[in-house]
């Protein structure tokens, strides 16, 4: 069902939801940018529709709501283990189509890649998603080529327009709260983009032979291995485990799951002093092929959703989309060398 509401009425809806939900959306963080006197768009709890940033892409994704940066899995003592309680409230998250597609990737990794991850599932089951329509793409977005510019997998959609706030509701439990406050009922189709300034081409003949290409060597010197691209990516899932022992009792503590990065030193260290992918070029190769080759071979869709955040955040101006577009010439190089 579609509804047209005013800003005042939407705030009334948010106030009604807050009884049962924590509401997250991209919001402005003044002076929160990486450089001095710059702002950041980050996901955080909001109280009003006016706090939501609709006209800029968020610098960080929604990911930390489902996958906390540091998450306590259990507490331990000498003779007991106890899991922390689940959050009391459910959550509502405002996000764009590309990020909703990213949720599907996370679900595949944590719920369908073998046994279910119980820590992810208990958060995931408590979340509802509201789609933020996109009137236009941003400079580094390439969602159309990744087929993530549209989605139907939302509980409701919300677009701002001159006539009011346009809502497409798919959750029957919310019909009453919208209908009792709406200015008009009508069919609503969420905004979506049909073209982007940035384009990518993944060659049809892409294979693991691309690992032999010299295209990866450039990243040995260009990439500094900071891992920022992984941390802003909505589909990166690498983590490490940390056991924290309390100083007042060295036999008690907690185990935490903490974000990690395949691009940083130490991630591939193994027992005995060995380490895989020591060079940054090798790490870049692993990341790119994971995003646009092997994940699709296993799951039928690319892992990358084309949000472009990795391009935006890289301090060395390395473009992931440009790297994808080098794959075709990389395959030609390999084939010519073997011919």
UniProtKB/TrEMBL annotation:
Superkingdom of origin organism: Bacteria
Record flagged with keyword Manganese: no
Keyword Oxidoreductase set for record: no
Stretches assigned to the 4Fe-4S ferredoxin-type domain: 212-244, 294-323
Keywords, in A-Z order: Iron, Iron-sulfur, Metal-binding
PROSITE patterns, A to Z: 4FE4S_FER_1, 4FE4S_FER_2
Record InterPro entries: 4Fe4S_Fe-S-bd (IPR017896), 4Fe4S_Fe_S_CS (IPR017900), Helical_ferredxn (IPR009051), Sulphite_reductase_A (IPR014259)
UniProt cross-references to SUPFAM superfamilies, sorted A to Z: alpha-helical ferredoxin
Protein name: Anaerobic sulfite reductase subunit AsrA
Organism whose genome encodes this protein: Lacrimispora xylanolytica
Gene name per UniProt: asrA
């Amino acid at each position: 069902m579609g509804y047209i509401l005013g800003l005042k009425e939407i705030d009334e809806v948010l106030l009604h939801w807050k009884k049962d939900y924590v509401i997250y959306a991209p919001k402005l963080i003044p002076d929160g940018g990486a450089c001095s006197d710059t702002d950041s768009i980050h996901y955080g709890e909001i109280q009003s529709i006016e706090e939501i940033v609709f006209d800029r892409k968020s610098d960080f994704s929604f990911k930390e709501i489902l996958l906390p940066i540091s998450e306590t899995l259990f507490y331990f003592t000498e003779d007991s283990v106890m899991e922390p309680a689940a959050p009391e409230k459910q959550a509502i998250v405002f996000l764009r189509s590309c990020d909703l597609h990213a949720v599907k990737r996370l679900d595949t990794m944590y719920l369908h890649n073998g046994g279910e991850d119980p820590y992810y599932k208990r958060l995931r089951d408590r979340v509802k998603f509201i789609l933020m329509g996109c009137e236009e793409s941003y400079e580094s977005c390439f969602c159309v080529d990744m087929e993530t510019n549209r989605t139907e997998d939302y509980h409701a959609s919300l677009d701002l327009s001159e006539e009011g706030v346009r809502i497409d509701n798919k959750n029957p439990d919310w019909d009453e709260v919208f209908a009792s406050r709406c200015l008009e009922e009508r069919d609503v189709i969420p905004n979506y983009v049909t073209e982007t300034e940035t384009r990518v081409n993944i060659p049809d003949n892409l294979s693991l032979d691309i690992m032999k290409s010299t295209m990866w060597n450039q990243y040995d010197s260009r990439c500094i291995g900071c891992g920022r691209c992984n941390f802003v990516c909505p589909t990166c899932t690498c983590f490490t485990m940390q056991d924290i022992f309390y100083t007042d009792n060295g036999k008690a503590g907690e185990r935490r799951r903490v974000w990690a990065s395949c691009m940083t030193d130490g991630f591939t260290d193994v027992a005995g002093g060995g380490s895989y992918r020591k060079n940054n070029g090798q790490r870049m190769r692993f990341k790119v092929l994971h995003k646009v080759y092997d994940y699709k071979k296993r799951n039928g869709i690319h892992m990358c959703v084309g949000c472009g955040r990795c391009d935006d955040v890289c301090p060395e101006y390395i473009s992931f989309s440009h790297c994808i577009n080098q794959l075709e010439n990389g395959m030609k190089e390999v084939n010519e060398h073997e011919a």
